[in-house]
Amino acid sequence: MGQRVLVVDDDPTVSDVVRRYLEREDFNVKLAGDGQAALDAYRQERPDLVVLDLMLPGIDGLEVCRRLRTQDPGLPIIMLTALGEESDRVLGLEIGADDYVTKPFSPRELVLRVQSVLRRSPAPPPQTGELVDGDLRVDVSRRIVTRRGEELALTVREFDLLAFLMRNPGRVLRRAELLEQVWGWTFGDQSTVTVHMRRLREKIEDDPADPKRILTVWGVGYRYEYA
Question: Which parts of the sequence belong to the Response regulatory domain (predicted)?
Answer without folding.
Answer: 4-118
